[in-house]
Design goal:
The protein is an alpha+beta fold. It folds into 2 domains: 39 residues; 154 residues, Distorted Sandwich (Glucose Permease (Domain IIA)), CATH 2.70.70. It is 16% helix and 34% strand. An 8-stranded antiparallel β-sheet has the order 11-7-8-9-13-5-4-15. Strands 3-16-14 form a 3-stranded antiparallel β-sheet, with no helix packed on it. A hairpin with a 5-residue loop joins strand 8 and strand 9. The longest helix is centred in the first third of the chain and has 17 residues.
């Protein structure tokens, strides 16, 4: 069924599933455990614990939801790696994530957003750097430098460098990245997730043109953050 429902100007970056239960695989064991415990309480006729278990299981399913997404076909367009709200866009010193000045775009994910992360561009993974750190509110500026984070350094076929940084939030305690150095990734394809509220920073060449502004709502894989030179 791949490609059967492509909107004009968009592609499916991965094989589509079109199933009723679209849950990230990391959430399936938790979902199964919650359903089992809820069923046990219900069979024992413990009504209040069963209702609490049902609510908790429903929240887990909601949090780990993983819908299929389409991506725009224009190859120079960089898509958002996360669902959420744009916190900032602007030229900054790239520090440890980019050599020299660059365009930085930050997306904040609340606990209610889809937390599956997607590749911002088709590229090769050059290296991955994990940094342990604190767990400040991910909407704060200092979260980029102080929080636990995982940086993914990418290079496109045209030689453009960009970096995606997964940043843990106030209650996040697990960053998941399925990529390895040397992997060739496709724009809009899933690569990981962050549990329970977090942030992603994207560093692009300074010549890139931002397509969003602070306050904009974006969707992973579908919304365009900017255009490469």
């Amino acid at each position: 069924m791949e490609g059967d429902r492509e909107p004009a100007g968009y592609d499916w970056p991965e094989k589509t599933r079109f199933t009723t239960l679209l849950v990230a695989r990391e959430g399936l064991p938790i979902l199964a455990l919650g359903a089992f415990v809820t069923a046990v309480f219900a069979l024992l006729e413990f009504e209040i614990p069963a209702l609490i278990g049902l609510a908790a299981t429903g929240f887990v399913g909601f949090f780990f939801r993983d819908p299929d997404r389409v991506v725009p076909r224009a190859e120079k367009e960089v898509v958002s790696p996360a669902d959420g709200k744009v916190l900032l866009t602007g030229i900054v010193d790239g520090g440890p994530y980019y050599d020299g000045r660059c365009l930085k775009i930050s997306v904040f994910m609340s606990i209610f957003n889809v937390h599956v992360n997607r590749n911002p561009a088709s590229a090769t993974v050059r290296r991955i750097e994990y940094h342990p750190g604190r767990f400040f509110n991910a909407s704060l500026d200092k979260a980029s430098a102080d929080n636990e984070r995982n940086a993914i350094f990418l290079e496109t076929e045209d030689g453009h460098r960009l970096t995606t940084v997964q940043i843990a939030g106030l209650v996040a305690r697990r960053i998941i990245c399925r990529l390895q150095p040397g992997d060739k990734v496709r724009r809009g394809a899933r690569f990981g997730l962050i549990c329970f509220g977090s942030r992603l920073d994207v560093y692009l060449p300074p010549e890139a043109v931002a397509a969003v502004k602070p306050g904009d709502k974006v969707r992973a894989g579908t919304s365009v953050l900017g255009t490469l030179p």
